[in-house]
TrEMBL record:
It comes from Edaphobacter modestus. It is found in: Membrane. GO terms for molecular function: carboxylic acid transmembrane transporter activity. Residues 23-416 form the Major facilitator superfamily (MFS) profile domain. InterPro entries: MFS_dom (IPR020846), MFS_sugar_transport-like (IPR005828), MFS_trans_sf (IPR036259), Sugar_transporter_CS (IPR005829). This is SHS family lactate transporter-like MFS transporter. Keywords: Membrane, Transmembrane, Transmembrane helix.
């Protein structure tokens, strides 16, 4: 392992070829900009609610519809990636979520806005699975944990960018009609489409996918397609991954989506201070994902996930109940270091647990089905807070951390360790034969 030999993070990056670095950078940016577009919604919840003259729970439905449609996108784009390749599918995917983000900015009514967010959810759902497959299949097996953590933190960087833009730009936007502040923010969110042009000329296809296609042609087999038979064959693995990702998504979204609202409502902070705290929190998240991802090469994926998740519980008092901005910022930093530290291991762990013939489909679909099951998390949190604490979110979100951390530790412990598994075509064919033999 590279990190254990003292090469460090820069050494891991320098060990890649130019093509590998370009591919990884494009996949990282795709996930970053996808998350940026999603989190623009979470930081603008109050402004959108005011514009449409509804309460925060009604606008929180937009988060629900984004999350609930993501499994469909993971399935559609994942199947396209298995058949036509990871690279062209990811390009189309990025263009789609940029278009729907722009459409959201011009939605004249709440109903149309919710439809736009549902369509955005389809596009967002496809990005993670296809991008992770393209990135991790293009990289060497050793050091996969480090790159897993770095890739996953594209989501955090997207959150960081959204919070920074909100804190710096939003207070100065005073337009009316279709140029109100949140709409301008969403227009900026459509810029990721430019990444598609970069990918068209600079990014190469996954060598694992190309080798599989070559093998099929030489053996006279049809192109790669995902069938329901494959889903049945790997059903136990599929259901376990859905359960795992339900716990993870409830944990992550439960500590992030309504946290800016908690800071505004419970602590009466202005947008500048909210943006500052969320930025500090996301710096912690980014560092946590990278550090824990790299450590998973030494400690194992399962052990690292469990340790990081459980470390979030002692951070609750500082994170939700502090009374000063510095203390809240420190709490946010430590909480997200733990939460996203656990999540940083997921791209490698999920792809290593997924069978090779469905690697572009299973990780993305199970990830997004986990989002689906936990998709009303924000709505439930807001309504529970209204019912039990007059709208204050700190108690509800504190219990979310406890339940989420314990659930992740339990489910992860029930799974297998697959650190550094061989993804060569020959190895995957052997694995398929072994599972088929077990079925018989």
């Amino acid at each position: 392992m590279l990190a254990s030999r003292g090469m460090g993070f820069l050494g891991e990056l320098k060990s890649l070829t130019s093509a590998q670095r370009t591919t990884f950078a494009a996949c990282f940016l795709g996930w970053t900009l996808d998350a940026f577009d999603f989190f623009l919604l979470t930081v603008c919840l109050r402004a959108i609610a005011a514009d449409f003259h509804v309460g925060i729970p009604q606008i929180a439905e937009a988060i629900f519809w984004t999350l609930v449609m993501r499994p469909l996108g993971a399935l559609i784009f994942g199947m396209l990636a298995e058949r036509y390749g990871r690279r062209p599918t990811l390009i189309i995917n990025i263009i789609c979520f940029s278009i729907f983000e722009l459409a959201s900015a011009f939605a004249p009514t709440l109903g149309i806005f919710l439809v736009c967010r549902a369509l955005f959810g389809i596009a967002m759902g496809g990005e993670w699975g296809v991008g992770a497959a393209l990135a991790l299949e293009s990289l060497p097996a050793r050091g996969r944990g480090f790159f897993s953590g770095l890739l996953q933190e594209g989501y955090v960087v997207g959150n960081l960018l959204a919070a920074a833009l909100y804190g710096v730009l939003f207070p100065h936007l005073h337009g009316t009609g279709m140029l109100t502040g949140w709409r301008v923010m969403f227009m900026i969110g459509a810029l990721p489409a430019l990444l598609a042009f970069y990918m068209q000329f600079k990014v190469e296809e996954s060598p694992t996918w190309l080798e599989a296609q070559r093998r099929r042609r030489s053996e006279g087999r049809a192109g790669s397609r995902v069938s329901f038979q494959q889903f049945r064959q790997y059903l136990p693995t599929f259901l376990f991954l859905v359960l795992l990702m339900t716990a993870f998504n409830s944990f992550s979204h439960g500590t992030q989506d309504l946290y800016p609202t908690l800071l505004e409502k419970d602590h009466a902070l202005d947008p500048g201070r909210v943006g500052f705290i969320v930025v500090i929190s996301n710096i912690g998240a980014m560092l946590g994902g990278i550090v824990c991802g790299a450590l998973s090469e030494r400690l194992g994926r399962k052990r690292m996930i469990i340790i990081a998740a459980l470390c979030s519980i002692p951070m609750i008092p500082l994170w939700a109940w502090s009374h000063t901005v510095p203390a809240l910022a420190l709490g946010g930093f430590l909480m997200q270091f733990a939460v996203q530290g656990a999540f940083g291991v997921i791209p490698a762990h999920l792809n290593e647990l997924a069978p090779g013939p469905v690697r572009a489909v299973f990780p993305g679909v199970t990830y997004q089905l986990g989002n689906l099951v936990s998709s009303r998390n924000g709505v439930f949190q807001a309504r529970l807070a209204q019912h039990f604490s007059g709208g204050a979110l700190n108690a509800v979100m504190s219990w979310t951390v406890v339940v989420g951390a314990l659930s992740i530790a339990l489910v992860t412990g029930l799974g297998r360790e697959a650190r550094g598994e061989d993804w060569s075509v020959a190895s995957e064919d052997t694995a398929v034969q072994r599972e088929s033999a077990i079925d018989r």
